[in-house]
Amino acid sequence: MTRIQSSLEGLVAAFQERFGAPPTHLSRAPGRVNLIGEHTDYNGLPVLPVALQREARLAFRPRTDGMVVLHDVDDEFEPIEFEVAPGIPPGEPGHWSNYVKGPANELARRYAIWQGFDGLLESNIPVAAGLSSSSAIVTAVGLALAEVNEVHVEERSFAELLADSEQFTGTRGGGMDHAISMGGRPSCAAKITFGPLRIRHQQIPADWCFIVADTGRRAEKSGAVQNLYNMRRTECEEAFSFVVEEVVRSNLVQMIPTDYASLMRAMSVKDLLRVAEGVLKSNLLRRFRHVVTEAARVDEAIDRMRAADVMGFGTLMDASHASLRSDFLVSTVELDELVAIAREGGAAGARLTGAGLGGCIVALTDRSTLDLVLEALVEQYYLPRRLAMRLDERLFLAAPSPGASVEAL
Ligand code: NG1
User: Fold this and answer.
1) Is the full-model pTM beyond 0.70?
2) What is the pLDDT of residue 3?
3) Distance (Å, whole) CA 241 – CA 380
4) Rounded alpha-carbon distances, angstroms, from residue 214 to 135, 222, 356, 384, 397
5) From the CB of 355, is ligand 1 less than 6 Å away?
6) Measuring CA to CA, which of 30, 222, 224, 360 is 20 to 30 A from 21?
């Protein structure tokens, strides 16, 4: 579900009505669409997302006590109230309060902060659609708490803190979402690498269009999808241990690799797959194969982007989708269908984006084929399913946008 975003004046007026005084600040944090590099971040391997024009916005006002009192403009989300302190008890599993308590807990744990705020939140990022609506909330709340408590942390360290804080929700996610939400730049994709976090921006060729198309099926990472996501992470860790054990036993490396990144620096993908085929059972082999081939595709995709090779980039997106579908097993009938329609409609490439199991695809076209692809998606997917109402919430072009900010009003 998407919520239409009000004007800033509208948000300020709604705040005043609820809290009896105007907000003093506004924090905003964008969602993101990942172009390639899926399920690599929590393995310490690179990703290539862009920050979206869709964002969470939080109008807030410091309180004189340690309470956070947060309302959402949408009444579907009940108001939250809790005290800022380390060891905040989590809400019910899947409750949206955990995305607010997470950053409060992490900041309080690290900085002994004590001051809360009154806040009113709104977001127009589709929820549970693989566009990082949850991390946008975590980021906007984290920035508000840092502001009222005068905590000043450099951008990348803050993004790492936010990623740690989202573990509070029970999803063992990686660091991509907070990094791009903090570090987005207009017209650019960002190659993000981890341990330590680094963001390198890459200008997107002017006539490339990334279409975001939502299946309409939610991928609730606060619900059933969370277990599967966490299970994939565990499988990747297990596959890594078995492969490292073997490469060390066979003397194939000089130093013991401590993570996927050092393993991939020490050996080629081809050699790694040869070892993996010898030691991993079928399911772990497939997860491992996805992770290492996907990481290699990220680097190739950046080269293709630099060369303005739209077909080359698209082919890598197709390969990414195939790997996510057949090896990582996170696609769905609807995601496959949207991908197929986009490709047959003339897209250079298309793939599911985000964790999968519902949510969105991202498709690449040049400007001259854009209308054809959009038309194919509308006529073959949205109209037959009666999903064409408020279509611009389900089908839109990514406009690579600036990262999060906080400002005094
Ligand atoms: P989505 O499902 O798009 O929010 C999740 C993770 C990312 C990353 C992707 C898969 C969280 C907060 N986000 O994103 O870190 O692992 O899946 O590439 O868990």
Assistant:
1) yes
2) 57
3) 45
4) 18, 19, 11, 15, 12
5) yes
6) 30
